[in-house]
Amino acid sequence: MENSTFFQLPNATLPTWTDNSIEYKFVSIILVILICGIGIVGNVMVILVVLTTKHMRTPTNCYLVSLAVADLMVLTAAGLPNITESLFGQWVYGYAGCLSITYFQYLGINASSCSITAFTIERYIAICHPIKAQFLCTLSRAKKIIVVVWVLTSLYCVMWFYLSDMEDLAYDNVILEKCAYKVSRNLYLPIYFTDFAVFYVVPLLLATVLYGLIARILFLNPLPSDPKESRRNWKKDSSLGNKSINSRSSSSCTTIASRRQVTKMLAVVVILFALLWMPYRTLVVVNSFLKDAYLDTWFLLFCRLCVYMNSAINPIIYNAMSQKFRAAFHKLCHCGAQRSEKPPTYSVALTYSVIKETSNGESPDHYSTELDNIREAAEVLLPGRKMLSFKEPSLACKNTLSTA
């Protein structure tokens, strides 16, 4: 990806080839293995916890799964081949590997950018337009959007099958095979700058505007009222009086805090995307206008590592800033060791109206577990009533429930 992007001319006179130093090989291999290893494990865990945990299947988390798949693609297609390049100094995967790896590199990069844009728009609608969010920000619609994103980016990246090719670089002392592009520098520049604008500049500008509007709602103004929630609160107030008002006030504060927490986490993901991609993007733009491109080996390694870190750091952000993800990661890691334990028993009064109001799995702001919602509602609606005991087998791996 880097060799061809930096426009090395195929017919240029090349000096004597010298292998990379031992220090460079050691540092590059260790850092790439470390970053890519952490990133692969972390993104796989994100996918597993969302797919296997029912209360984690929200529209926002669906977009995070799409982002995790794209990051896995970048780490495996762009990160791991650089280990062999550092060791051997040339391309070792042949013609088919050149075409497929280049394709998956750009597919992962473009799909990650589109996934970030998708969850940014979803957060904006959910927070700034809660009425529209009732039918726009649903789980089924999020899945359809993700499918469309991957289909369009896959079709867009097909051109790299026709642009990629093997190239022999003739040095004074050796001939090395490289994975490069067929087109000349002048023809490639418009393609690259289109990628740069569509998948980097536009998403960041859009994210800046939308997160500014979200911040104004969450941190400066009270949240817009939700008509559906208002009707529920009115019914509770009329039947239960002050106790319901206090409970509703506490629930509203928890919802606002949860929305702020999730928004901060996603904003950090976008900011790191902008910062960690900036060295590579800037270097390519600068080299596009230089007669002799700047190709310092150590600086190129720094640019690559920043790209890999962008794909590896997101699960760490989720774990650090989201209590729900942190609890889900902990549960996933300890599930095997605690599988034989007896499932915990919960006492909850179950009524049809309670279940109906608390089991909407497609709500865009479904930040608390279903059992927590049922238990809280039961305590308010049926104080003093004898509770029915039931077991939840799906929670056998953890003895306590954590809210968002």
From TrEMBL:
Residues 226-238 have a biased composition (Basic and acidic residues). GO terms for molecular function: thyrotropin-releasing hormone receptor activity. PROSITE patterns: G_PROTEIN_RECEP_F1_1, G_PROTEIN_RECEP_F1_2. Receptor for thyrotropin-releasing hormone (TRH). Upon ligand binding, this G-protein-coupled receptor triggers activation of the phosphatidylinositol (IP3)-calcium-protein kinase C (PKC) pathway. Keywords: Cell membrane, Disulfide bond, G-protein coupled receptor, Glycoprotein, Membrane, Receptor, Transducer, Transmembrane, Transmembrane helix. InterPro entries: GPCR_Rhodpsn (IPR000276), GPCR_Rhodpsn_7TM (IPR017452), TRH_rcpt_1 (IPR002120). One of its GO terms (cellular component) is plasma membrane. Gene3D superfamilies: Rhodopsin 7-helix transmembrane proteins (1.20.1070.10). It comes from Catostomus commersonii. It is found in: Cell membrane. Belongs to the G-protein coupled receptor 1 family. Residues 239-250 have a biased composition (Low complexity). Residues 226-250 are annotated as: Disordered. It is a multi-pass membrane protein. This is Thyrotropin-releasing hormone receptor. CDD domains: 7tmA_TRH-R (cd14995). Its main location: membrane. Residues 42-318 form the G-protein coupled receptors family 1 profile domain.
